[in-house]
DNA sequence: TTAAATAGGACTAGAATAGTCCTCAATTAA
DNA sequence: TTAATTGAGGACTATTCTAGTCCTATTTAA
């Protein structure tokens, strides 16, 4: 199904909530109770988002989490890669080691292009787009095949 | 990582091999020995591809598998959905049941758009594109730096 | 100093995947 | 007609991955 992990799904919910909320800094526990996601799980996700520079954290009392940039500047690609690592469909798109199929596999370059296309698509959608109420058919069409012919 | 399953990866290797091979009909065992993938696994994949109308099978002695269409007419999207089901990042893009996040989730429409975009990208690349020798310079691989900016 | 928070990582249980195997059905050729 | 070949379909197991929890250390405000 080419699916996103559950944690990534939660992350979008959490970030959407944070984008809509006026408050600048929110504690993990607040977020948990507002979104209905279990607190330890929320914390785990928030930490990952901090590591990927999507969120900024403040320690200590009165501490919490805040968006590192405006919702317009946070791409869906950034969120996904924060939770799941580099966006790539196949192993060999990330590192070219250990991918020698017996009969010589020349697929690499082409998969790379596909990955690039998908990455572009995800890069072009921001958190602001996700929170926008009704989807504006802002067609993000990238004709990959045309790049070959 | 937004990754493809290993079986899907194998499927592309198998199909690439079949596309390049002159022979019309290939037995599962032949494919296994040529690609180096274990025979039972190859069979499993071939069966799935038949069910999805990507391959056509012939039973009995001298039987085997053949591409259902020309490589130009077999999209990567078709291959992926044969192995992994509908191409969609989130559950609620497939069926809209049971996705009511406490605070009212209006994400659907927008995820739908993202899914559509990715689907378009995968639909536009064919098996012929994958087998094409060295389509692109190395530079096309996903620029990891952009994931963290 | 104390309380409130995050950082980091270990750990467990459950789910999904990969991979194998067995039996049945169909086709060809001797 | 029979035997050999090959795919269909599905059950099954083992392994890996994911989700989720929890513990301890660190940082900061009051
Ligand atoms: S499997 Fe990595 S290049 Fe083909
Ligand atoms: S989770 Fe399905 S619509 Fe938001």
Protein architecture, described:
The structure is a homodimer of 149-residue chains. The first copy, chain A, is mainly alpha-helical and 149 residues long. The longest helix of chain A is centred in the C-terminal third of the chain and has 16 residues, at 108-123. In chain A, helix 1 (6-20) packs across helix 3. Chain A is built from seven helices and two strands, in the order H-H-H-E-E-H-H-H-H. Chain A has helices at 6-20, 28-35, 39-51, 76-84, 91-94, 108-123, 127-131, and strands spanning 55-58, 64-67. Chain A has a two-stranded antiparallel sheet with strand order 1-2. Chain A has a single domain, classed as Arc Repressor Mutant, subunit A (Orthogonal Bundle). Mean pLDDT of chain A is 80; it is low at 96-104 and 135-149. At the A-B interface, helix 1, helix 4, helix 5, helix 6 and helix 7 of A face helix 1, helix 4, helix 6 and helix 7 of B. One FE2/S2 (inorganic) cluster is lined by residues 92, 99, 101, 105, 107-108 of chain B. Residues 92, 99, 101, 105, 107-108 of chain B line the site of one FE2/S2 (inorganic) cluster. Chain A binds a DNA duplex (30 and 30 nucleotides) through helix 3.
State the end-to-end distance of chain A: 29 Å
List the ligand species.
FE2/S2 (inorganic) cluster
Q: Would you give the CATH topology of chain A?
A: Arc Repressor Mutant, subunit A
CATH class of chain A: Mainly Alpha
Counting copies of identical and different chains, the oligomeric state is homodimer
Please name the fourth-level CATH homologous superfamily of chain A.
Winged helix-like DNA-binding domain superfamily/Winged helix DNA-binding domain
Total DSSP helices of chain A: 7
Secondary structure class of chain A reads mainly alpha
Lateral arrangement of strands in the main beta sheet of chain A: 1-2
Query: Averaged pLDDT of chain A, please?
Result: 80
Strand percentage of chain A lies at 5-15%
* Largest pleated sheet of chain A: 2 strands, antiparallel
Q: Give the chain pair forming the largest contact, with residue counts.
A: A-B, 67 and 60 residues
Number of strands of chain A: 2
Number of domains of chain A: 1
Q: What is the C-alpha radius of gyration of chain A, as a whole number of Å?
A: 18 Å
Along the chain, the helix and strand elements of chain A come as HHHEEHHHH
Shape of chain A: elongated
Indicate the percent of residues in helices of chain A: 40-55%
Low-confidence stretches of chain A: 96-104, 135-149
